[in-house]
Amino acid sequence: MTDILTLVFRTFNQHNGKPKDFKNIAPSKCSTLVVGDCSVNRSLLILAAVTAASELGLKVSFFTQVKIQSLPGSLQESMSNLSPDNLKKIKFSYPRSLEDLLQDVASLHESASGSAAPPSLIIVDGLEGYLRGPGVSGGLQQAEQSSAAHISALLYDTAAFLTQTLEERAASLAPCRVIASFQSEWEGHAGGDSSDPVLSVLDRYFQVRCTLDQDWNSAPAVAGPQDTWHVYLSGAGITEDPIAKDEEVSSLAREWRLVICPNRSMEFTMV
């Protein structure tokens, strides 16, 4: 199961009146691919980074081509509760090309040789920008698939290496997880179509896929315009919730409804 995203969904669950017990979410080595609209993907990844740092005390390496200008509305509302020390656990890097990204991810191996603990969460925002940008040569489709396999394999190997390092130095911070996002360019399938050859390659390396599909039929809210998305978790890494006590609780991590409010805050509700 994807423990970090599950934690995000529960943290920003509007209808969850129960106190959050973050220790009950078992750590997971599963890597997760978020597939949907790039702007929504980015907001979700930022939520994941801040939640992992502030609630679990994890170091996060966040890679993106886009400068982070503002935080999602959900975080802006709770910024007063966030410790500056926790936010310092997130390191933002802005590799411009696939080659830069490969070098930056590979450098995490070197950082693990220092005295400080390596990151417990690696986030890559917008894989599509790296796979279709400079540094990708050869036949376009074949090159994208080859590049997708290359960066995915490097992320997998890096996470495994850092997990071993964390287990030796700070077992409480292990394992090292990977969350990346991808927007399919196949027309009519922003959430990702199984016939997208690049997405098929990525699915071989990421054990969990988090698919975001916009609900165009949702009724408009009285408070103003809002976007509604269906969130589905699938893949080989999906297992029963280890703390689930009944079928309803067990289904919590499988399907969610995401509402993006007029103030851009994100609210999750289980389906």
Fold and architecture overview:
With 271 residues, the protein is of the alpha/beta class. Helix content is 37%, strand content 18%. It contains nine helices and nine strands. The chain has a nine-stranded mixed sheet with strand order 3-2-4-5-1-6-7-8-9, with helices on both faces. Helix 1 packs across helix 2, helix 5 packs parallel to helix 7 and helix 7 runs parallel beside helix 8. It is globular. About 5% of the residues have low confidence.
Question: How does the SSE layout of this entry go?
Answer:
Layout: H1 3-11, E1 32-35, H2 38-56, E2 60-63, H3 73-78, H4 84-87, E3 90-93, H5 98-111, E4 121-124, H6 127-131, H7 140-169, E5 177-182, H8 197-205, E6 208-214, E7 227-234, H9 247-250, E8 255-260, E9 266-270
Parallel strand pairs: 1-5, 1-6, 2-3, 2-4, 4-5
Antiparallel strand pairs: 6-7, 7-8, 8-9
The shape, in one word, is: globular
Largest sheet: 9 strands, mixed
Structural class comes to alpha/beta
Strand content: 15-25%
Strand order of the largest sheet: 3-2-4-5-1-6-7-8-9
Number of strand elements: 9
**Global Rg:** 18 Å
Number of helices: 9
**What's the SSE pattern?**
HEHEHHEHEHHEHEEHEE
Uncertain regions: pLDDT < 50 for 5+ in a row? Answer: 240-252
Average per-residue pLDDT, rounded, comes to 81
What's the N-to-C terminus distance? 17 Å
Helix proportion? 25-40%
Task: Provide the descriptors you would attach to this structure in a database record.
271 residues, nine-stranded mixed β-sheet, 9 strands
